[in-house]
């Protein structure tokens, strides 16, 4: 059964590309493939996929560099990026999230698990943290920040910021109820979903990147509990 979701697979190993492509096409997805980072960026610009599954270890331009370039493209702001790699070291996962990745999948992976993870990621495609509490308007103004939920943009002191999808969704969640302390469990569920397993430091990495872009004063840590947005 076909659907309208487009998935770009990027890996320099032909057998892995064939395995992923076969199973995802069989599940009804529209699949495109690339065996290096440069071709991946070209295809991503051309087709604007809903999901990119990206290997980390590739020659010339590795997955981290490729993800960083993808996140610079405004047309790909809503594209979900998941790293698929045999590397499970903590530093590699942190580097991936720093580059703007949404999820991290370790290979080898069974077909049924792959399809389940892909379905969970695509289910959350778009701005997952939108809530009625945030605002009925698409434009939200708090302090020096101006957030446009429809255009997926954030302006700080007149300067437009480039926020990856997960950072934008995290910001929307926090500003939906200023001064409310969101627990780590609430954040995990709202941003990554119950079916997606992420590392303990994932939230911390995304909060740090947000603070670097919008300013330290907006997001406060409540030790042992979680985070809150302060106007």
What do you see in this structure?
The chain has about 230 residues and is an alpha/beta fold. Helices cover about 40% and strands about 20% of the residues. The protein is built from 8 helices and 12 strands. The radius of gyration is 18 Å and the shape is globular.
Side by side, the strands of the main sheet go 2-1-3-4-5
Envelope shape: globular
Helix content: 25-40%
Low-pLDDT stretches are 126-136
Q: Which percent range describes the beta-strand content?
A: 15-25%
What structural category do the secondary elements indicate?
alpha/beta
The largest β sheet comes out as:
5 strands, parallel
Mean pLDDT: 83
Count of alpha/pi helices: 8
**In angstroms, what separates the terminal alpha carbons?**
48 Å
Radius of gyration: 18 Å
Number of strands: 12
Order of helices and strands: EHEHEHEHEHEEEEHEHHEE
